[in-house]
Amino acid sequence: MKKGKATSGRSEPFPGILYSEPGALGLVCNIIAAFIVAVNNIQGDEKGTKLAAIVTATEIAISSSLAIISVGLCVLSLLLSITMAKICTVLELAILLHSISFTTHIFNADTKYFPMVSSILLGLVGIHGFILYTVKGLLDKNLLPEGEPLIKMRTPITPALPCPTFRSRIASDLFKAAKVLEKGEVICVPTDTVYALAGSCSKPDSISKIYHIKGRPPEKPICLCISNLQQLRVANPPFSPLLWRFMDRCYPGGITCVVKKGPWLQNLGVGEAADFVGTKESVAIRVPDSSVLSYLVSITGPLAITSANPSGEPDSTHHNTVLDTLGGKLAGVVCDDESNETVASTVVNCMKIDEGLISYFRVGCVPKDIVDNLFDEVKKEQSDQIN
């Protein structure tokens, strides 16, 4: 229910003090009227009497004008309040009646009990609204009836999303996303670079779905995503100390290392998906510096990932872009707003690293010279350790 804004009226302490609605304009009117009345109370010599007469005439003109303006503003507020809670409409009506009673007093009309009745009504409704919204604000409970709006505004129809969405910072949502992956479905996930399509390695068919969804040529490999380097160490691949040292410097982050395939992939929990990730001889290992994706991988195990964009099109840097381009083909999107980078990771060929050589399949968010410097430092450290 939409909460209306409760406003309160004030009884006039003496003629000339005008209450108007909205409050800001009413306050200005009150100050002006109070000043006029104060000047009108000046007593003195003949000159002062003439001044008082002039001020009295001015007071009548200004007070009358302000009173009419006040009634008009109250009518406007009443019309606007019919889309709010009913108590707001009743309150605005009470304020309008009170304003009318004051206006009739300005014009010296014989209203008898009208001002008193309108003041009592305004006071009762004001107390009701004060208690209602105070309790509602503090305890989120309706101690007194609020009432439905007399006219309900039509709520804009939000277009249905093409697929389910999951909030990246809500653990329960990520758990739901993990369940979708475990069913063999493909979802979009945020990384430390751009958004990626992901499928569980425990469900090799999901990797085939990634190729189909993205329109990716079968000769282009998909990389393997793990949560941390320790996960790779436990799999015990036969990597050289130089390669381990280099990966220590690269992970986690926007560098992907391409290494030789082997039976160690089974120790990693890749299973039959080993035939679907990478090439026959190699596999790209991705360890993103993303708490969201790391948490997801810790639940599901290794994921096969590739950038979340139709093949040949720019990388997706916002979950809305993914929803627009691929949403209808996905089982879900983990939403994390803008990505940290505008391009994907830098892919480094480490197949000949033991020969002191690295090359690049793709230069992405990490510049080539930075990676080269890292490798030079690693080689020097390795050489110093041997010597």
UniProtKB/TrEMBL annotation:
Gene Ontology BP annotations? regulation of translational fidelity
Write down the InterPro entries for this protein, in alphabetical order.
Answer: DHBP_synth_RibB-like_a/b_dom (IPR017945), Sua5-like_dom (IPR006070), TC-AMP_synthase_SUA5 (IPR050156)
EC number(s) for this protein? 2.7.7.87
**PROSITE patterns the UniProt entry points to:** YRDC
Q: Note the Pfam families from the entry.
A: Sua5_yciO_yrdC
Write down the top EC class of this protein.
transferase
Q: Which superkingdom heads the taxonomic lineage of this protein's source?
A: Eukaryota
Subcellular location, record wording: Cytoplasm
Query: Organism, per UniProt?
Result: Magallana gigas (Pacific oyster)
Write out the GO cellular component annotations.
Answer: cytoplasm
A Gene Ontology molecular function term for this protein is: L-threonylcarbamoyladenylate synthase
Give UniProt keywords alphabetically: Cytoplasm, Transferase
Q: What is this protein called?
A: Threonylcarbamoyl-AMP synthase
